[in-house]
Amino acid sequence: MRIQDTPEEWSVTATATPFTGNKTSVRTDEVEMPDGSRVNRDYQVHPGSVAVLALDEDGRVIVLRQYRHPVRQRLWEIPAGLLDIPGENPLHAAQRELYEEAHVKAEDWRVLIDVYTSPGGSDEAVRIFLAREISAAEGERFEVADEEADMELARVSLEELVRGALAGELHNTCLAMGALALQAALSGDGIDALRPADASWPARPFAA
């Protein structure tokens, strides 16, 4: 039996937006349950994100260390960012983030995995790409600020990232999911079986 997520939408009888922030907001929907009762569901409305697991010729992954205030930790992550423009092509956004955060470019791109980060409390959808054939980007480095101003960059083996995630030492969602997904792909049908970089993404439809 093949299991697969399917679209479904229960009736929303009322909705409100009690908070609107710079990039995200909070929505309260009154949702009709199957038995006819109505309950409120609060959740974060999020534009969506992309992340890039960039693999160099030595099998190392480009990672960044950045302070994340909500969890009060400095986390190791992979390059990632918001889909700032509605309908933006996620591949273009991923290429931009890889350039801005790591100042590299990649020639080979595949979709590694699509996830909802916290579907019980947010509609955030993330597409994680695998990028290979890495080389230095041309031009000046992107000027960073705030939490990104003191980011550390490193290249770490995939095996070390998988070990760290399973040991409870690495916690960033995109890093852990990306590393585990790539390990699974390498142990299964291989990278060539991954979806192409322009594969459709129903959670965040985009123009080609």
TrEMBL record:
<dbReference type="InterPro" id="IPR015797">
    <property type="entry name" value="NUDIX_hydrolase-like_dom_sf"/>
</dbReference>
<feature type="domain" description="Nudix hydrolase">
    <location>
        <begin position="44"/>
        <end position="178"/>
    </location>
</feature>
<feature type="compositionally biased region" description="Polar residues">
    <location>
        <begin position="12"/>
        <end position="25"/>
    </location>
</feature>
<dbReference type="GO" id="GO:0006753">
    <property type="term" value="P:nucleoside phosphate metabolic process"/>
</dbReference>
<keyword id="KW-0378">Hydrolase</keyword>
<dbReference type="InterPro" id="IPR000086">
    <property type="entry name" value="NUDIX_hydrolase_dom"/>
</dbReference>
<feature type="region of interest" description="Disordered">
    <location>
        <begin position="1"/>
        <end position="40"/>
    </location>
</feature>
<dbReference type="Pfam" id="PF00293">
    <property type="entry name" value="NUDIX"/>
</dbReference>
<dbReference type="GO" id="GO:0005829">
    <property type="term" value="C:cytosol"/>
</dbReference>
<dbReference type="GO" id="GO:0016787">
    <property type="term" value="F:hydrolase activity"/>
</dbReference>
<protein>
    <submittedName>
        <fullName>ADP-ribose pyrophosphatase</fullName>
    </submittedName>
</protein>
<dbReference type="GO" id="GO:0019693">
    <property type="term" value="P:ribose phosphate metabolic process"/>
</dbReference>
